[in-house]
Amino acid sequence: MSRIGVFTCHCGENIGATVDCVKVAEMCKDIPGVVHSVEYKYMCSDPGQRQMQEAIKEHKLDGVVVAACSPRMHEPTFRRAAGDAGINPYMCEMANLREHCSWVHEKGEATTQKAADLIRVLVEKVKHNEPLHPIKVPVTRTAMVIGGGVGGIQVALDIANGGHKVVLVEKSPSIGGHMSQLSETFPTLDCSQCILTPRMVEAAQHPNITLMTYSEVEKVDGFIGNFKVTVRKKARKLDEHLCTGCGLCIQKCPNKKISDEFNEGLGTRTAIYVPFPQAVPNKPVIDTLNCTYYKTGKCKVCEKMCPTNAIRFDQEDELVTLDIGAIVLATGFKLMKTDAFPEYGYGKHKDIIDGMQFERLASASGPTSGVMKRPSDGRSPETVVFIACSGSRDRAKGVPYCSKICCMYTAKHAMLYKHKVHSGKAYVFYMDIRAAGKDYDEFVRRAIEEDEVKYIRGRVSKIYEEDGKLIVMGADTLMGGEPVVIKADMVVLATAVQSNDRSEELAQTLHVSYDSYGFFAEAHPKLRPVETNTAGIFLAGACQAPRDIPETVAQASGAAAKVVGLFSNEELTREPIVAVVNRQAAPVYSTCVGCFICQGACPYQAIEQEEIMARSGEVIMTLARINPGLCQGCGTCVATCRTKAIDLQGFSNEQLYAELMTL
Amino acid sequence: MRIGYYPGCSLLGSSREFDESARAVLKALGVELVEVPDWNCCGASSAHILNHELSIALPARILALAEQAGISEILAPCAACSNRLLSAQQELEKHPELLPGIEKAIGMPYKGSVKIVNILEVLDRLKVLISVLTTAPFRKKVASYYGCLLVRPPRVVNFDRPEDPQSMDLLLKAVGATPVEWPFKTECCGAAFSVTRTDIVAKLSGKLVQDAVKRGADAIVVACPMCHSNLDLRRAEINEYLQKEYAVPAMFITQVVGLALGLDPKALGLHRHLVPVAFAETAGVQS
Amino acid sequence: MNSGSHHDHHEDTLAWRIQQATGVKLAHCYQCGKCAAGCPVADQMDLPPCQVFRMLQYGLPEYDKRVLESEGIWLCLACETCSTRCPQEVEIPKVMDFIRGEALRLNLAHPRSRDILAFHRAFLDSIEYTGRLYEVGLVADYKVRSRHFLKDVMLAPKMYVKGKLGLLPHLIKNRRGMKHLFKHTIGKG
């Protein structure tokens, strides 16, 4: 016969105001198996917990039901307290009187009765509970950071400085990300490359960091502390160890007219190239789609020129599998392209550019060496229109959210333009100015007050070309919606921040959740912002939602702290709420018939095939076995098992039926 | 090819050359037209201004008549008509609760089974044939003018792209013309204000004429009778507003295609324009 | 608690009636002005479309009245440029149609809408009696209604010469059906 104690909590007024807790405690005394039942104002408080612990000892309780709030917050609290008092923590259950009863019902007899019923159900469960023990898993103390922008670099440096190994994977030939493309940064106008390049070099030289550039994650197996990650190292078509980065091959490559990604199509590059002069590593790659040799079978000029014979035309992609303990996603964002705007000409006007293109025009290392020249004819633009919220907060374009960074960079762009073309006129069409951040609003005011940028509150309906000018048809809603037409030489669209290409694919590879826009989902929007729902995988930067540099870096350090925290132990402790396939004595062995429908249904690849062998070594049968390290306790396999051979520990069929039958 | 035909009121009167040229061209291309028996006005731009139900009932009657005549697909060359027919059809699809009232008003059952197409869609299907049969390429620079009703609202008409559409341009290229790059393909001409607010029409259509000429167009090509009347019948007011004599003709797409196919200009109703199509004899037709 | 919403429905507001009749929710408009920016007649309107929406968003009788009395609502060409480009996908012309109907119903239509109205009424009268538009009849009727007798006197002869003016109406056979149709739609209101 069980000896169960029931502890009913008033939760202040939360439960006490609607449920008659004193009466509930009295009613519970009559439940078979209950030997002790009390109520208290705050069970989670120190005296409350102590009261429970003393009762466990005094009444020799073997199970406990705490009738209080949602188990989400306090189940660990009460289980720990129960464990400290000498019973197995998993013999402690919580009845949720707050969310399931007092908050959703009016005060009254029925409400009190329901509270007692909820407790009765849990008492029945505890009677069927088995002591469980946490699962221990080893931790591989090497982290992988996916994405080598400013966020990824910061995560890598912080973990490496914490004394752990990091593999930094970047898909493009160099680390640096979008920040390496920026001219100056808000709100201080310091040069982006000047502050980023030292970090890039530091990451490259750090003894704990291994750079894998021009590489992409292909497959992820395993679980927290024990991931196996397969990375595709794309063929650079050269031997990185032999290449000295002298650049002779680039100089001599005859194929010079390829649109340059780093300059956002505003400049050209060669077929063998380094994306930008400060690239890390400073080793070229051959763009096989555009290389004359790969197209015609002739050329090989680079090979002839290379003083160290580093060129390898026959080099193939390489797949590398690594043992990883934690993964941080820092894959960044992309900008909506100007061709997504039918009303602005579907991207056909050369002088309508996006924000990143403007950065390249303004950058000293850009295609114009920082001189303001418009793309169509190279003339200095005398009037420039900047359009904020281009594609953002625009349901019709599928982006209802705010892209967050545009207000600030548009103010910066207008300012940079005015600094470069003193006589120029800058207009900004905006809907709201969202400049919440340290020194942010002051920065926008400076653009308006000191640099005389004209801010017009309204959207632009149409842009067309006439006599070499772009006719911008807007409206001023602060003047009653009066149409405003500006003849501009160049238009800069602050286009929407979107999740990166293939982000959904990557999320599926890693089994992390993502939202309908392809941004990775955090485990909790407020309290777990850098974790994903998959244990051991963390987030940093704009792959989660639009973010600026300071936020990205802060979040990166947060994610790094999570990883370092995880790596502070050699072993991980996990909740034993996992599924188990039953095992019985020979000759039955199990009620599992080996159909393996569960294996296909398991979202976590936790189900393996186990061969039961006779002494002779002959395989008698093949049964399902669940890897407790991988199992997340979702119960899908339990539902699919046709012979009821699987049970979820702590939520077995027997327990659940017992709960239901008591009602 | 056999297709239902709903000419609409304008094609019987002020834009009869659109009807003449559409019939002539489609006949030359081997298309048989089956006119909807005893059809009525679609309500044009007046019914929806004054009464929502009326604006559905009038097109519904036409579509119901077409159904009774066994027509599965109906060509409405007039952009306003095809727009109204599509709007009513979709409104009834979205709000089936309106149907009993509408059926009562039109005194007929309505199934909503007829597919509605505009003249560009039909010509586009025949584009290969048209370019094969082109004997007198229309070697002119043209401004293709779609107006509002062919492409908007995109949710209703679901035709071409709402800004800078291409179908007419491609058709014109197929008959040897060179479409000019211009930004006003879908700007409004002033539509139904032709009679009541001619000042607005002069201004809006004036902008179109002025810009088309500036971009080197020898003709403005349209597929809507309202656009055509504003650009042609209202040319005097336009020129007065612009203080300049613009002589660029406005032509229906069917007239241009007809000339390229070598049809008689008179059969295409080219003589009916107030702004003369001065190059018709020399450029369009083989000697 | 009643079903769904926590809010009172201000059933006496124009905004509420618009939502009931057209399904367009005024609160969707966030006042970006893109409608006014692209509207071909916004510069002639006393209230550009975004201002019409702003006033209606208040739900106050005095603003509703100003909208109903405005001239701008009668200048809307229903060209659908605004709704095609609206980032919030608001069907503005649909709302304009409804407001005009309300202005007429409540006898608040702007005096300068008289001509426009006269035209539309003449148009509908013409098809009510003949089934198809009788252009000469329409213009004549319009002239009587609007008292612009001399308007376009020069145009008609030119059109006649070009064969564009049919002097006799095209009558459909089932004219009784047309009368019935009008009686059961516009005649109800």
Automatic annotation (TrEMBL), chain A:
<dbReference type="InterPro" id="IPR039650">
    <property type="entry name" value="HdrA-like"/>
</dbReference>
<feature type="domain" description="4Fe-4S ferredoxin-type">
    <location>
        <begin position="234"/>
        <end position="263"/>
    </location>
</feature>
<dbReference type="InterPro" id="IPR017900">
    <property type="entry name" value="4Fe4S_Fe_S_CS"/>
</dbReference>
<dbReference type="InterPro" id="IPR036188">
    <property type="entry name" value="FAD/NAD-bd_sf"/>
</dbReference>
<feature type="domain" description="4Fe-4S ferredoxin-type">
    <location>
        <begin position="583"/>
        <end position="612"/>
    </location>
</feature>
<dbReference type="GO" id="GO:0016491">
    <property type="term" value="F:oxidoreductase activity"/>
</dbReference>
<dbReference type="InterPro" id="IPR017896">
    <property type="entry name" value="4Fe4S_Fe-S-bd"/>
</dbReference>
<feature type="domain" description="4Fe-4S ferredoxin-type">
    <location>
        <begin position="622"/>
        <end position="651"/>
    </location>
</feature>
<protein>
    <submittedName>
        <fullName>CoB--CoM heterodisulfide reductase iron-sulfur subunit A family protein</fullName>
    </submittedName>
</protein>
<dbReference type="GO" id="GO:0051539">
    <property type="term" value="F:4 iron, 4 sulfur cluster binding"/>
</dbReference>
<feature type="domain" description="4Fe-4S ferredoxin-type">
    <location>
        <begin position="282"/>
        <end position="316"/>
    </location>
</feature>
<keyword id="KW-0560">Oxidoreductase</keyword>
<dbReference type="Pfam" id="PF00037">
    <property type="entry name" value="Fer4"/>
</dbReference>
<comment type="similarity">
    <text>Belongs to the HdrA family.</text>
</comment>
<keyword id="KW-0004">4Fe-4S</keyword>
TrEMBL record, chain B:
<dbReference type="GO" id="GO:0016491">
    <property type="term" value="F:oxidoreductase activity"/>
</dbReference>
<dbReference type="Pfam" id="PF02754">
    <property type="entry name" value="CCG"/>
</dbReference>
<protein>
    <submittedName>
        <fullName>CoB--CoM heterodisulfide reductase iron-sulfur subunit B family protein</fullName>
    </submittedName>
</protein>
<keyword id="KW-0560">Oxidoreductase</keyword>
<feature type="domain" description="Cysteine-rich">
    <location>
        <begin position="4"/>
        <end position="84"/>
    </location>
</feature>
<feature type="domain" description="Cysteine-rich">
    <location>
        <begin position="142"/>
        <end position="232"/>
    </location>
</feature>
<dbReference type="InterPro" id="IPR051278">
    <property type="entry name" value="HdrB/HdrD_reductase"/>
</dbReference>
<dbReference type="InterPro" id="IPR004017">
    <property type="entry name" value="Cys_rich_dom"/>
</dbReference>
TrEMBL record, chain C:
<dbReference type="InterPro" id="IPR009051">
    <property type="entry name" value="Helical_ferredxn"/>
</dbReference>
<keyword id="KW-0408">Iron</keyword>
<dbReference type="InterPro" id="IPR051460">
    <property type="entry name" value="HdrC_iron-sulfur_subunit"/>
</dbReference>
<keyword id="KW-0560">Oxidoreductase</keyword>
<dbReference type="GO" id="GO:0005886">
    <property type="term" value="C:plasma membrane"/>
</dbReference>
<dbReference type="GO" id="GO:0016491">
    <property type="term" value="F:oxidoreductase activity"/>
</dbReference>
<dbReference type="GO" id="GO:0051539">
    <property type="term" value="F:4 iron, 4 sulfur cluster binding"/>
</dbReference>
<dbReference type="InterPro" id="IPR017896">
    <property type="entry name" value="4Fe4S_Fe-S-bd"/>
</dbReference>
<dbReference type="GO" id="GO:0046872">
    <property type="term" value="F:metal ion binding"/>
</dbReference>
<keyword id="KW-0004">4Fe-4S</keyword>
<feature type="domain" description="4Fe-4S ferredoxin-type">
    <location>
        <begin position="20"/>
        <end position="50"/>
    </location>
</feature>
<dbReference type="InterPro" id="IPR017900">
    <property type="entry name" value="4Fe4S_Fe_S_CS"/>
</dbReference>
<keyword id="KW-0411">Iron-sulfur</keyword>
<protein>
    <submittedName>
        <fullName>4Fe-4S dicluster domain-containing protein</fullName>
    </submittedName>
</protein>
<keyword id="KW-0479">Metal-binding</keyword>
